[in-house]
């Protein structure tokens, strides 16, 4: 220790010297040696820098160096992040991942291999040809499935997500859309025309039926009077008694 030890230090130092920097730190701070050229200077920090891990002791808290392949570590034997070119696995930094695992270049870790997963096949589609379901005998039908899990770099690739097969349908003519619409319109007009005709005929026959009914009622009223007058004439007629 350099003889020039001072108690009035700055930067979190409890004791310091002009030559060595911090010699001890205030409570809860970590002491670490930083190399400047051929010289090491003591500094006090609230947390350890990259490449170091902290250890607390009753008299002092120190920052110790991680292994050479570790960028950050929890202890000397447990890395939390590896330097470039290494992959993290179970606290260790490896140049090559173990069997059954693959290197993830995004996280720089050894991860499990993920294989592709797909859903079940859908039902077969209707038999079609050129987008139509009529006007042909042979066509194709299709079924599809979806990808549920995409594979990782070393995982099994996804299979085909669609299948097609030939099919045979009953030959039938395609009804033209315009012609079918025209026929439906003509049927509707004809139906409306027939209804109008029946309505007119019913309206036309209604007065005649009313007139016939009135005439029958009048006849029923006048017939008794005619019979009564006829009987009266017969009673008044002279009786021929000459022989």
Question: What are the salient characteristics of this protein?
Answer:
243 residues; alpha+beta; TSP-1 type 1 repeat; 3-stranded antiparallel β-sheet; two-stranded antiparallel sheet; 1 helix; disordered C terminus; repeat; Rspo_Fu-CRD_dom; heparin-binding; glycoprotein
Overview of the molecule:
The chain is an alpha+beta fold and 243 residues long. Among the domains are: 1-65, Ribbon (Hormone Receptor, Insulin-like Growth Factor Receptor 1, Chain A domain 2); 76-112, no CATH class; 118-168, TSP-1 type 1 repeat (Single Sheet), CATH 2.20.100. The protein is 25% helix and 33% strand. It has one helix at residues 177-236; strands spanning 5-6, 13-17, 21-25, 30-36, 39-45, 52-56, 61-65, 70-75, 78-82, 87-89, 92-94, 101-104, 109-112, 117-118, 138-144, 147-149, 162-168. The strands form eight sheets. A three-stranded antiparallel sheet has the order 1-2-3, with no helix packed on it. It has a two-stranded antiparallel ribbon with strand order 4-5. The protein is elongated and about 155 Å long. It starts with a strand and ends in a 7-residue tail after the last helix. The model is unreliable at 239-243 (pLDDT under 50). Residues 175-219 have a biased composition (Basic and acidic residues). Belongs to the R-spondin family. It holds the Pfam family Furin-like_2. One of its GO terms (molecular function) is heparin binding. Residues 116-170 form the Spondin-like TSP1 domain.
């Amino acid at each position: 220790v350099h003889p020039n030890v001072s108690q009035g230090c700055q930067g979190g130092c409890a004791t310091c010297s002009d030559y060595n920097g911090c010699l001890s730190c205030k409570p809860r701070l970590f002491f670490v040696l930083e190399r400047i050229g051929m010289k090491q200077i003591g500094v006090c920090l609230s947390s350890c820098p990259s490449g170091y891990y902290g250890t607390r002791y009753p008299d002092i808290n120190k920052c110790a160096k991680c292994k050479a392949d570790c960028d950050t570590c929890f202890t000397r034997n447990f890395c939390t992040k590896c330097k470039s070119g290494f992959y993290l696995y179970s606290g260790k930094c490896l140049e090559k991942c173990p069997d059954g695992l693959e290197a993830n270049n995004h996280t720089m870790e050894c991860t499990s291999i993920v294989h592709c997963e797909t859903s079940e096949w859908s039902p077969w589609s209707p038999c079609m040809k050129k987008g139509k379901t009529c006007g042909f005998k042979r066509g194709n039908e299709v079924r599809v499935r979806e990808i549920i899990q995409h594979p990782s770099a070393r995982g099994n690739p996804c299979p085909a997500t669609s299948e097609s097969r030939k099919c045979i349908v009953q030959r039938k003519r395609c009804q033209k859309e315009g012609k079918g619409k025209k026929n439906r319109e003509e049927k509707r007009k004809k139906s409306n025309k027939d209804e109008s005709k029946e309505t007119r005929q019913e309206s036309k026959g209604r007065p005649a039926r009313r007139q016939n009914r009135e005439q029958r009622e009048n006849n029923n009223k006048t017939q008794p009077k005619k019979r009564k007058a006829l009987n009266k004439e017969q009673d008044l007629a002279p009786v021929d008694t000459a022989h």
